[in-house]
Write a structure and sequence with these properties.
- With 321 residues, the protein is an all-alpha fold.
- It is built from 13 helices and no strands.
- It starts with a helix and ends with a helix.
- The model has no long low-confidence stretch (mean pLDDT 82).
């Protein structure tokens, strides 16, 4: 590793660590470092029960969504795609709604299984639609994904309206870390499996971006790698959705910003996408807590504002063409 590359990597890690520590001290309750080592200190209890689970969830959610977006763009060879623009997130939402309707007393694990299965099926359907469409330019692909996602979302909303589940679903999937605490954040750790799988399979995912025909000629099991990719994307997306709700734009903006400076080689961008996906969500969440202090804005609103501005910037630069 060259000195210049080492400095760049260290900067990202140090920035992530700084923001993680800073996130622990942002909130209505002021914390005093001097009281942390007292067994009965209120500050320590606040850190353990709310601030630390929230910060961990932010890091894992941001990194998972960014990596999932990078892998989706690699599979489709289209910079507009991400789990939120190809129907993966909407399909997971539909699975969650159906689990609430069919098994209202089901555990969170059962709901996670429903969301995962529907996310996989929805993504597979999108991939099938994509293969059946001849025109696959940068605009057509996301339009297909957005239309498909809207159909799935509308179906989920219809089911929720029919059985009075709209309020529960809207509150749960709003994209907010305010309710995260030590008793309800453990599901986010499942996203680690998705991240590890994407990193370990980076070589194969780099190859699959060459296209089906060429990949088969190279002796790689294209269909198998494709399904594993979809499973990892769906698994990570479902874990984030069930823990903190829907967070937009990260899967599109972060991979494209990284490729703007680092190039388009999938394997080389994994580290930067992971780190800066987490950093982006940490910054957004900190802003959501301080802009209207002591009140809190849902982080999905802040991510949407910043993400849309960055998205427009990338469009104007022609990076997404």
């Amino acid at each position: 590793m060259t000195k210049k590359l080492y400095i760049k990597n260290s900067f990202g890690i140090l920035l992530l660590l700084f923001l993680s520590v800073f996130s622990l001290f942002v909130g209505v309750n002021k914390l005093s470092i001097g009281h942390f080592f007292q067994n009965s200190s209120i500050e320590w209890k606040i850190i353990i029960t709310t601030r630390l689970p929230r910060t961990i969830s932010l890091i894992l959610a941001g990194a998972t969504l960014a990596l999932s977006g990078l892998l989706m763009q690699q599979l489709t060879q289209n910079k507009f795609t991400s789990p939120s623009t190809v129907g993966t997130m909407q399909s997971a939402r539909l699975g969650l709604i159906l689990s609430l309707f069919i098994f209202p007393e089901a555990s969170i694990i059962n709901r996670a299984i429903f969301a995962l299965v529907f996310a996989i099926v929805g993504t597979l359907i999108f991939v099938g639609l994509l293969h059946s469409v001849r025109a696959k330019n940068s605009i057509v692909v996301p339009i297909i994904g957005i239309m498909f996602g809207n159909v799935i979302a509308s179906l989920g909303t219809y089911v929720a309206l029919q059985w009075d589940l709209v309020q529960d679903i809207s509150a749960w999937l709003q994209g907010n870390f305010a309710l995260i605490n030590s008793s309800n954040f453990q599901l986010i750790f499942l996203s680690l499996l998705s991240m590890i799988g994407i990193i370990m399979g980076a070589h194969y995912f780099s190859v699959i971006g060459l296209g089906k025909d060429l990949v088969i000629q190279l002796g790689v099991a294209y269909e198998k790698i494709l399904f594993i990719s979809i499973f990892l994307i769906s698994f990570g997306t479902a874990a984030v959705l069930l823990t903190v709700g829907n967070i937009p734009f990260i899967g599109i903006v972060i991979p494209n910003l990284v490729s703007l400076f680092k190039g388009d080689y999938f394997k080389n961008n994994l580290f930067y996408v992971t780190i800066y996906g987490a950093i982006f969500l940490l910054i957004s969440d900190i802003l959501s807590r301080v802009i209207l202090f002591p009140y809190e804005i849902p982080v999905s609103v802040i991510v949407g504002i910043i993400g849309s501005a960055l998205f427009i910037y990338l469009l104007l630069r022609g990076e997404l063409s």
